[in-house]
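fyi for ur records
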Amino acid sequence: MGRRLELPVLTEVKDQLTQALSRLVSPMEVSLGFAGGGCKAFYGLGVGFKLREWGVRIKEISGVSAGAAMALCVVSESEEESVQYFEAITARNPSNFSLSNLWKGDRAFPHEQMYRRGVRFGLRLDKIRSTGTKIYIHTVRAYPKEKSLKNRFRMARLISETARCFVLDDRDRTEGKPGFRTAEIIKKWNMQDVDFTEKDFANETLVEQFVMNSSCIPPILDLQSVDNEYYFDGGLTNNLVLEKFDPNAKIIGVYYEPSTIFGKSEALIKKSLLLKPSTKLPITSFDYTNPEGIRKCYELGKADTEARKEEILNYIRGKHQIWPEPPFLLGKI
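which gave:
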């Protein structure tokens, strides 16, 4: 006679078969949005990894700044390799700022080259194309370049004015108040929102540049330019792009600061499932010297997602669609 299966084993097999049949009858699909946040965005990478591990199909995905890099890693299915790679290069980086390099006329910040290498390593363009996933990489385009010396002064003004207005507006949003300064700067300098999609992905070099455009925060990352146009960090106007998704989609958004979602449509927020870290993240946005923090951030994303597995899967399956009104919509952050 054959060996009898233990009850826990039978239960596990039953659960796996139930999940497989459920996906065949009604595939689990989601539209996933990643906010920007520098190294904090490795948390979102952990979330994306877990969703894929459960068999959830990512029908649409959006990313802003570092969130764009993580979005591409998730669709490329290179999450773990990308974390290992970034751990390795940050372990070899002694400092986030080098005064001696500045005196020599070299880059004082190491971030751009390291970031480019990380994006390039995690990108699998053939895999991205094979998934059929709709992708949005959000950035902000400024006025066309000019070659006169005067333009350098104008560019310095643009950077300083934009940075100041964004910081002040972000402070206001954190306090539950709307900010209008950045919108005024956007209008003054004739800037426009731009969303690059998978249809624009002609080659890997171009996709890498799209991520850099979305992530541009001078002086940490140089001002980016493509085809005679400048680009700034997409977080200037929208740090979590959910508005581009199919209106009938199940939407999951990953964010880190309350200011990211302040002012979004109440209807959009209520129909979406928003995830944020359960505890303070062990790394700051631009710390490229902390491989342990990167790993812990990624693992926390996985652990938080696993802890909410039933809630998340019920939401995707349509069992829970309306969420309580968040306090930030009432200005009570």
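The beta strands are 29-34, 57-64, 134-144, 192-197, 224-226, 229-233, 251-254, 272-275. thats all i got for now
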